[in-house]
Input
Amino acid sequence: MARNESVPPEPALTAEQVYRDYAPRVYNLARRMLGNNADAEDVTQDVLLQVVRKLGTFRGESAFSTWLHRVTVNAALAHRRKRAGHREYSMQDNLDQVMAANHAPGPVRHWTVGPEQQVLDRETQELIENAIAKLPEIYRDVYVLADVEGLPNAEIGEMLGLSLAAVKSRLHRARMLMRDELAPHFEEVSA
Amino acid sequence: MMTCRELIQLLIDFVSGELPPEHQALVQQHLQTCPPCVAYLQTYQHTIRLARQLPCQPLPPDLDRRLRAALAEIKAMPAPPAVT
Output
């Protein structure tokens, strides 16, 4: 598509606009990745202060939104490393291999779930948030970025330093774990 | 004939429409004869939809206050030199 040269450049973002539109998104992403409100608060503060200091270098919300996701993910990963070291990642890589070899379908029932776009009640939200928090970190990161944030797999791979195949493999396993965790709450009751 | 285990490995590409046509046909064929895999596919898709419906929670009031105070301090500082 030809570029329209008459389109004016997007205006610079202001600190107030960033705070109003993006602070809750940064907080929610950090909270879901870290599974801990206090750590998410630290990360949110670090990210927002960093972002507001660099605001003058941005034009337009699309580039800014991509960059903000990246900064938040990096800050959350750094925070996690500082807290736990690298041990868990190597343990989870083994888990990854075990799951790949062993996951097979067991007895499966259909679910009773409301229509798409329905507002989730508080209890259902909590159920899903708890299931996300239980995911091993290597699956949780990919799952939150893909299925909650809606980012493309290629972008997630760049953020996490993973190949596209690794992103898809982890996302698939995360979805299977989430499905297994949620199933008892949504399965149809037998007659 | 595709097995249930093979079908499950292809689900991620099946639900995103990225499966090559020959695999797509094999999955469809398997689904026509395997109710447990139909149910698994339905629940896998519900899992995806439910995550996408999660709302963005507001900031906790304490964090909101802290951040507003920190931002007010930054705004009182002189602007850094422009990046070239």
